[in-house]
Amino acid sequence: MFFSGDPSTRKRVDLGGRSSKERDRKNLLEQTRVERNRRLWQRQQNSAALKIQKCFRGRKDVRIEKSKVREQFYKTYGKYCQNVDRNSFCVNSDFLRQFLYFFKADNVDDFLVLVQIGRLLQQFVHEDGDVVKLFADVDYSSRCGLVNYRVKQLVYSCICALHQNRNQLKDQLLLSPEELDVSAVPLLEVIVLLLDLKLPWSCKIVGYLIQNNALGLLREIVLTGKDNAENYFSIGKGSSLERLLMVVICHIGQQPCICSNIDPRYSFASQIITIPFLWHLFPNLRQVFAAEGMSQHYIHHMATFGQNIINLLPKDISNQFPSYACMLGNILETSGVALSQPACSFDMAVDLAAVTTFLMEALPSVGTSDNREMILDDDMIEDEEGVEVALDKKLEQQIHNAINPRFLLHLTNILFREVSSVNGSEYGPDGREVAAVGAVCGFLYVTFNKLPMERIMTVLAYRTELVPMLWNFMKRCHENKKWSSLSEWLSYLSGDAPGWLLPLAVFCPVYKHMLMIVDNEEFYEQERPLSLKDIRSLIIILKQALWQLLWVNHTTTSNSLKSASASSAIRRQSVEAIQQRVSIVVSELLSQLQDWNNRRQFTSPNDFHADGVNDYFISQAVTENTRANEILKQAPFLIPFTSRVKIFSSQLAAVRQRHGSQAGFTRNRFRIKRDRILEDAYNQMSQLSEDNLRGLIRVTFVNEFGVEEAGIDGGGIFKDFMENITRAAFDVQYGLFKETADHLLYPNPGSGMIHEQHFQFFHFLGTLLGKAMFEGILVDIPFATFFLSKLKQKYNYLNDLPSLDPELYRHLIFLKHYDGDISELELYFVIVNNEYGEQTEEELLPGGRNLRVTNDNVITFIHLVANHRLNFQIRQQSSHFLRGFQQLIQKDWIDMFNEHELQLLISGSLDSLDVDDLRQHTNYAGGYNSDHYVIEIFWEVLKGFSLENRKKFLKFVTGCSRGPLLGFRYLEPLFCIQRAAGTASEEALDRLPTSATCMNLLKLPPYQSKEQMETKLLYAINADAGFDLS
Question: Which helix (H) or strand (E) holds 641?
Answer without folding.
Answer: helix 641-663
